[in-house]
Amino acid sequence: MMKSIPVMLCIAATMTIASAQSIILDYPGQSQSTRQRVAQCFPLVNAAGQLPRQASGIGAIDCFFYKDRECRVPTTEVLVVPLDRYPKNLSSLPIPPNGSVRCELSYE
Questions:
Q1: Per-domain boundaries in the chain
Q2: How many other β-carbons are positioned within 10 Å of the β-carbon of residue 25?
Q3: How many angstroms separate the CA atoms of 14 and 25, rounded?
Q4: CB 10 within 8 A of CB 43
């Protein structure tokens, strides 16, 4: 019985940390935000072909933008966009409409 309690606490802590590592994107005309996992490469445009207006992170997150959909060709204009719990306006950034993004935890 005593061994199962630490194991359950460890699993719960791991699940909490994993769920916290995500970014939240707000697209025009959508009532709900889109959540993406950290370290996952994903296209920036939504199903309607729109770029996100703003983004925020759960935790300190750095996002890297790419010209291609496979996250292989980085953009030269925008290297890193730091995100935290406060929404960051993305509309003024030179984000390629057919590009993608990959975000990582910030260790600073």
A1: 22-105
A2: 21
A3: 24
A4: no
pLDDT digits (tens, 9 = 90+) for 50-94: 888 898 987 788 888 888 888 898 887 666 788 888 898 887 777
Sign for the CA dihedral angle at 72, 51, 103, 11 comes to negative
| Distance, CA of 10 to CA of 7 (rounded, Å) | 5
Amino acid making up residue 22: S
The helix/strand/coil state of 37 is: strand
Closest to 59 measured CA to CA, from 32, 86, 88? 86
The gap from C-alpha 33 to its chain's centroid, in whole angstroms, comes to 12
Q: What are the distances in angstroms from CA 6 to CA 1, 12, 20, 106?
A: 10, 10, 21, 29
Task: Kindly indicate whether the domain formed by 22-105 is annotated with CATH number 2.60.20.
Answer: yes
